[in-house]
Amino acid sequence: MRLPTLFNALALLAIAAASAWVLPGAANAATPFARIDPAPFMLDPADSFQRYGSVIDELESSGKVRKAPTLSSALDGPQDFKPTWGLCHGTGITAGLDPTGFCWDARDDGWDTANWRPQGISGSWDAQPSGLWENRRITVASWHGIKDSDAFGRLTFVDFTSTGTLKFRDVLLVVPVRTATGVTFTTFNWNHADGVVWYGNTLLVANGGRLHAFRLTHLWAMDRSAEDIGLGPNGDQPASARWHRYALPMVGEYYPEYTPAPGSPYVGCSSITGVRPCMNSISLDRRGSARDSMVSAEFVGPNQAGGRAFRWPMDYTTALPALSADGKVHAEEAFTSPIWHMQGVASDGTNWFLSGTCAGGTGTCVHKAAANQAPSQKTRVYGGLENLSYQPVATGQAARLWGINEGNERFVFSIKVP
C-alpha cells in the first residue's frame, strides 16, 4: 500500500465535515466502527488446492526441487542480511506503550533506495499457541517489489530468540505451473503481497483480490543462484528463485465470492461496496476457548473511509480457513470502519486495532475500536504504518501488538496492548 499523502487545510476541513470522525474526546459525535450483515461475504477456494497440489507433488517426486528439512535449518544457514534488535530510528510511538522491536538491514531501510516494500506482519505467536516455532521466537513479514511494482512477492523470517544475534531468511513466493515441457514454477507476479498470517505450517498472504496459501512443508532450497525463476526454459536446469536461497510455492488460493470459470476473465474484489470483499490487511486472532479466527480489512485511499473489516473462521486441523458444508469460507462478523486510509487490522476477540490516518489528518496512527463504538487514537507511528498483529498471552510472553512500516527509516515494533 502506498504512503499517505499530505492534504491541504481546505481538503482536511471538507473531509472532516463529510465523515463526522473527529478527535478522541468527542466520541459521542464520532462515527462508530459499525456492524454490518456478514451473510453475503465468503471466500471460495474452488479446485485450486487440487490444481496446485498436483504440480507440487510431481515436482517433489521428480527430485527437481529439494525440500528444506525445517525452517530452523534455513534460518541457521548463511546470513546475507543483518537486521538489528532495537528501534534504531525515531518511531513517534508513545513511550508508555513500551515500544521495542528491530530494524532491517541498511539495504532494506528506505523507500527511495530499497527494492522492496514491507507490508504484512505475523509471527510464531500466531503459528502456535505456545508462541514458539521449533522452540524459537520468529517474526515473518511480507513484501512486494521491485519498488512500487507487484512483479515479485517474498516473505522474510527473522529469528529473535536471541536478540543479540538475529537470524534472517528471505524466501521468494512462487507459483507451480504445468507447461508444454513439464512441471516447473514461475514468478508470483500478480501479487501485491500485502497482509500475512502464519498459522501452523500455513502462510496466508493477501493481495487485495485474493488470499493465497503456502506451506512450510514445501519450503524449497534452491540449487542455483540466478536471476530467473524455475527450472530454466527447457525444465532441465537446477532450481533457481531470483537469487534467493529458498522459495515457497503456492498450494491454493481463495476467491472473494466469485469463482472464475476456466478461461474466463477474473472478476476482482470491490472495497467499501459489493459482495466481493478485498483482502488487504490480515491477522490472526487466537481467542482461547473460542475458535481461532482471521480478521481482514480493506485498504482505502488517503481521502476515504468506509473500508470494511471481517472475521473469518479458522480450522486448526487443516491450518487453513474453515470451510462450511458448501465448501466455502463464510464471514462470521463484518464491520464498516470510519478510519481514513485504513491500512491494517488486528483483534483480541473483542477489541479491534486499526491503522490509518491520524485524527488530525496527517501521519499514521494506531486506533482502537469495539463493535458499534467510535474508535479512539492510541499512538502515532512514523514512516507509513502498515499492517498489525496481535500477540496473545503465552508461556513467558505478555500480550503485545506488533506493527510494521514501509517508508524511510523502517522498523518492526511491538508495544503493550493499548
Automatic annotation (TrEMBL):
Keywords: Signal. Residues 1-29 form the signal peptide. This is Secreted protein. It comes from Virgisporangium aurantiacum. The lineage of its organism: Bacteria, Bacillati, Actinomycetota, Actinomycetes, Micromonosporales.
